[in-house]
Structures are given as C-alpha cells and as structure tokens.
C-alpha cells in the first residue's frame, strides 16, 4: 500500500529513498541513526548503574547529599535536559496524529514510533543523570552522556533533513518541535561539556598565601596509592618474615592510625575501604620465603590501573579480525555483477558493506587512540607512584643497610628497573592481542584454504621457535647490563662522597681508570643486549613475507590437485585476496612480538 505521507519504500530497510533525493529510507534511518545508538547508550548506562550499586569500590558516586549536589550542579543543563525530555514526549504524542501511516498498525512499518520511544527513554536517563549526578569533575557517566549527546545531535540533523521533505511534517507542528529539540540537544551538549560556573564559589574563594603551601607535599591520591603499594610490597615479602629492625629505622604505616599521622584523615580512609578489608586484600594467607619483588607488588596494588587499556585493545582486536570477512563479502558482491549466469546481489547490500567498512575503520581508529591514551595515562600514574615508593623506602632504610653490597641502588631502580616495569605495559597488551589474532586468523585461514593452512602453522612454529633461540641470552645480557650500571653509579657515588680522601691520597688516576673500565664493560654488555634486539627485529620484519610465500605456494599446489578431484577450495580471486588479508593480519602480530618480545622477558 502506497502512502502519500512517505515514499513507497520507506517501510523497507534500504539506504536509498526513491522519492527524496540523496536521502535514506525512514526504516533504515530509524534503525541505524536512532534505535541502535539509543539501545547501546541505555545498555551501557544500566550496566554502569548496576556495577556502581553492586561494587564495593564505587568508581561513580551518585550524590545523596542534596545540598552538596545542588551546590555543584549546573542548573542550566538540568533545565535543558528537562526541556529535551518534554520535546521528545511532544514528538511522541504528535507523530500518530500528524503523520498518517507512521504507526505499526497501518502495515507500513517505518520504525519511527519505536525510535521516538527509545529516544524519550534516553532523554529521561539524561535528565535523571544530570539531576542526581552532577559532580565538579569528569566521571564516566558524564563522559558517556556527552558522547551520546554529540552523536545523537549529529543524527538528529539527518532526521531533521528527512522530515523537512515529508509534506505532512513540514505543514504541521511536528517539524518545528523537531527543530527545537535539535537546537536543545546542541545547547545541552555545550553546557554539559563545559565546566559549570558557580558565582558562589567565586565569591567564597580567598587568596592563597605562599606560606600556606606545604613544599613538596604529596597529593591525596599519591599518598593513597603509596599506602596500597607498600602494603603489597610488604605482603610479597611474607609479612614480617623478612623484616629486620636493624635495617629499617621506621616501618611504613600500615594501619589507620599511622596513616592518619601521614596527614590522611579517617574520613578519607573510610571512603576507600576499612583496614581489615585492606589487609584481607593485600596480605597473603601464609608467610612465604620469597624475596619481595616490585613487579608483583605493583600488580597487586595497581591491578585496575594496569588493566585499564584492556577494553579498548579487545575492541581493536575484534575489529581487526572482521577485516577478512568484509574483504570476502565485498569480492563476492563485485563478482555477482561480473558473472552473467548468477543473479546480482541487491544494491542495498553494497551500501551496507560500505557502512560496515566505515564503522570498522572508525572503531579501529577510536580504539587505537583510546588505547594509546590509556597506556600513557597508566604509565604516568605507575611511574610516579613507583618513583615515590622507592624514594620513601630509601628514606626509612638505615645507613648500614644502604652500605650493604646487596642493597640495590635507588638510582638504578628509578632509572632502569622502574622503566622496565613501565615500559612493559604496552608490550604486554600487544602480545596477548597478537596471540588472540593469530589463533582466530588461523581458523579463518583454514576455512579459506583447507588443509593448506598446515603450511602456515608449520611456518609459524618455526618462526616462534626461532625467537627464543635467538634471544636466549637477551635476559642475561640485560641483567648484566643492569649490574654494570649499578656498579658504575655506586662507584661514582662513593667516589664523590670520599673525594677529599682520594685527592689527599693521589688516587685520581687509579679511580678514573677504574670507572673507565667499568664503563667499557657496561657499554659492551649494552651492545650485546642491543644485538639481541636487532636480531629479533630483523626476524619480525621478514616473518610476514616468509609466511605469505609459504602459504600461497602451498595453497596453489594443493588446490591444483585437491580442487581438481573434489572441487573444494578453488584458487580464485576472492580466495586469494581473502587469504592475503588474513596472512597480513597474522604478519603484524609477528612483527609486534618480534619487536616487543625482549621488552617483557
């Protein structure tokens, strides 16, 4: 049945309208630009609220103190959110009467009414979020609302253009209300994205005197992180099993009373967790004789910080694995128009492939950018906490412990050990992602070329087996380099302290020769370590070409005999390009593993 209100194909899921120039069908537009973003936003919001209510450590605190909430919130954004909700309710009420045939009962389902209903519910969520949760700092819920408002405002522009060419909407009050809602969304996005201005806070601000600023005072966050790190560090040593009072002039505070002496109030500690919960979390069940390790303590104390780049890297991995499927579908779509015997696939399928490619590469760019941002953010947090931890640990050690030959140099720990821990964050996430990509890509390759993918597995096994063989001495060379660096810095530090006695004894020449000798051995150890890294990098650069050559050659030979006999796994253009895409996907993880392997051993 043809409707005068809409185009004849507005009830079909097709990207091209046959009566509006350069426009989508209403069903396609309502599904992609309205239903899908609103469903995703509502699912994430509900999951975030449930996680907040069930989690003991609430990353998002919904304010319960109404006076503090009213003091920090921006009244303009709340009024705009309520106006946006009222306009959406008006659109939902006006659509059945002003747009004939828009309801599902007419048999011409354009999904306009379900889309408006979901947008109304999203507007209700935004209004509640801005009313009950309006902090003075960015939080995940605020970031989620701002992102959704930006995307929905862009999609509302497409919707506004479409209904402008619908005569029934343009001649009624539906289009002005829709235009008002479009403007309200942009104003709401601008107000929520900017810092709220409160004149009362400006009037209450007093000038800060320089004498009131405590020099080099650590922030509250750094002190809390320090407490967590040192609890984990002491716990990794087995409690008091390795604690010697003769080597430690003062222990680091582990209870609430000592933390209060470190200028941390009881109210601040109560917002985190109780002392018993902290001990239950970080202390082992039984004392161990293992030597305390800074890496283990860092993982215990900063697990959430270390694994924060995980979601974006997981999304990036999934999008990378979707590329071969898109390439195969695209080649099959093109081949359907080249083959005269078969029926061509509909044009809407081609538009869907274009949108799929755009979505995949957009998500790859966004996830890659967010992963890089998360890595740098995590690196800054971890490096700052570890440097401060080593500094505080050095201050509480006695002079006898510092003069002990077995005590590592704090300078070397800050320059070498901490950089190794921090520098291993990016390789760690790259390597687990590379392993997942390789396994899934091998399964996709098996579906394309059949038994010929055994050649790929054998080549991969040879390449992976050669990496540990080429780097079997890399860890030893790196340890030797660290020891030489520690010895040189220790000798220079001791020489500076005893420079007066050295000059009186005329030992300058002997000291210079000694330092020069140690420096030469240090450089030699560094060269050996860099040579190991160079071999791994060379193998990673040529691994992709070796893998591609072995795979294509084997597939050509197997296909020549196997396809001739059974007709399966043909050596066609679609299969070859899909295989090359899959091998190139495997190639990049090999290059990353070859380049990053030595950074995590």
Automatic annotation (TrEMBL):
Designated gene of the protein: SSCI33580.1
Superkingdom, taxonomy of origin: Eukaryota
UniProt domain ABC transmembrane type-1: residue ranges: 314-601
UniProt cross-references to InterPro entries, sorted A to Z: ABC1_TM_dom (IPR011527), ABC1_TM_sf (IPR036640), ABC_transporter_C-like (IPR050173), ABCC_6TM_D1 (IPR044746)
This protein's name: ABC transmembrane type-1 domain-containing protein
One example GO MF annotation: ATP binding
Membrane topology field: Multi-pass membrane protein
GO cellular component annotations of the record: membrane
Main location: membrane
TM segment ranges: 32-54, 75-99, 111-132, 144-165, 171-190, 301-327, 347-373, 428-446, 452-471, 533-561, 567-586
Keyword ATP-binding listed: yes
Keyword terms: ATP-binding, Membrane, Nucleotide-binding, Transmembrane, Transmembrane helix, Transport
Phylogenetic classification of the source organism: Eukaryota, Fungi, Dikarya, Basidiomycota, Ustilaginomycotina
UniProt keyword annotation of Disulfide bond present: no
Database matches in Gene3D superfamilies: ABC transporter type 1, transmembrane domain (1.20.1560.10)
Subcellular localization(s) per the UniProt record: Membrane
């Amino acid at each position: 049945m043809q409707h005068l209100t809409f185009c004849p194909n507005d009830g079909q899921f097709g990207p091209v309208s046959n009566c509006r120039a350069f426009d989508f069908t209403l069903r396609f537009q309502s599904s992609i630009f309205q239903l899908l973003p609103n469903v995703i936003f509502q699912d994430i919001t509900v999951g975030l609220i449930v996680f907040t209510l069930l989690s003991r450590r609430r990353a998002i605190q919904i304010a319960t103190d109404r006076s503090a909430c009213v003091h920090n919130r921006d009244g303009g954004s709340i009024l705009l959110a309520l106006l946006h909700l009222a306009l959406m309710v008006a659109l939902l009420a006006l659509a059945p009467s002003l747009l004939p045939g828009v309801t599902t009962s007419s048999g011409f389902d354009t999904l306009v009414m379900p889309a408006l209903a979901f947008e109304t519910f999203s507007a209700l969520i935004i209004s509640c979020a801005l009313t009950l949760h309006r902090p003075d700092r960015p939080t995940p819920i605020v970031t989620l609302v701002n992102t959704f408002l930006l995307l929905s405002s862009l999609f509302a522009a497409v919707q506004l253009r479409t209904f402008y060419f619908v005569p029934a909407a343009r001649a009624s009050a539906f289009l002005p209300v829709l235009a008002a809602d479009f403007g309200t969304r942009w104003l709401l996005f601008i107000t929520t994205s900017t810092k709220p201005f409160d004149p009362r806070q400006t009037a209450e601000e007093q000038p800060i005197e320089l004498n009131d600023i405590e020099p080099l005072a650590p922030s509250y966050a750094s002190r809390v992180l320090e407490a967590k790190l040192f609890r984990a560090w002491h716990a990794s040593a087995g409690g008091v099993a390795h604690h010697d009072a003769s080597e430690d002039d003062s222990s680091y505070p582990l209870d609430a009373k000592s933390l209060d002496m470190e200028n941390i109030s009881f109210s601040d500690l109560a917002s985190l967790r109780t002392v018993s919960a902290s001990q239950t979390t970080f202390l082992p069940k039984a004392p161990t004789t293992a030597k305390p390790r800074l890496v283990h303590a860092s993982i215990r104390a900063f697990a959430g910080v270390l694994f924060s780049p995980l979601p974006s890297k997981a999304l990036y991995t999934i999008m990378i694995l979707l590329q071969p499927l898109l390439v195969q579908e695209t080649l099959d779509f093109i081949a359907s128009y080249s083959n005269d015997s078969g029926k061509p696939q509909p044009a809407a399928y081609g538009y869907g492939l274009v949108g799929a490619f755009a979505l995949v590469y957009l998500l790859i760019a966004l996830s890659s950018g967010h992963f890089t941002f998360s890595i740098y953010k995590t690196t800054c947090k971890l490096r700052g906490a570890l440097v401060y931890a080593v500094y505080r640990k050095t201050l509480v050690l006695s002079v006898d412990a510092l003069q002990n030959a077995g005590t590592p140099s704090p300078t070397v720990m800050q320059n070498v050990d901490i950089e190794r821990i921090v520098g291993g964050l990016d390789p760690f996430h790259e390597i687990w992602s590379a392993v997942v990509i390789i396994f899934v890509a091998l399964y996709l390759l098996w579906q394309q070329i059949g038994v010929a993918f055994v050649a790929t597995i054998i080549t991969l096994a040879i390449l992976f087996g050669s990496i540990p063989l080429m780097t079997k001495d890399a860890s030893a060379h790196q340890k030797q380099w660290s020891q030489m660096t520690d010895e040189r810095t220790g000798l220079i530090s001791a020489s500076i302290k005893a420079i007066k006695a050295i000059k009186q004894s005329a030992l300058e020449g002997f000291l210079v020769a000694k330092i020069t000798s140690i420096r030469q051995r240090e450089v030699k150890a560094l060269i050996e370590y860099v040579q190991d890294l160079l071999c791994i990098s060379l193998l990673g650069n040529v691994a992709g070409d070796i893998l591609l050559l072995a795979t294509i050659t084997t597939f050509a030979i197997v296909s020549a005999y196997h396809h001739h006999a059974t007709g399966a796994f043909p050596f066609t253009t679609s299969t070859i390009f899909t295989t090359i895409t899959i091998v190139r996907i495997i190639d990049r993880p090999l290059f990353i593993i070859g380049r990053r392997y030595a950074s995590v051993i």
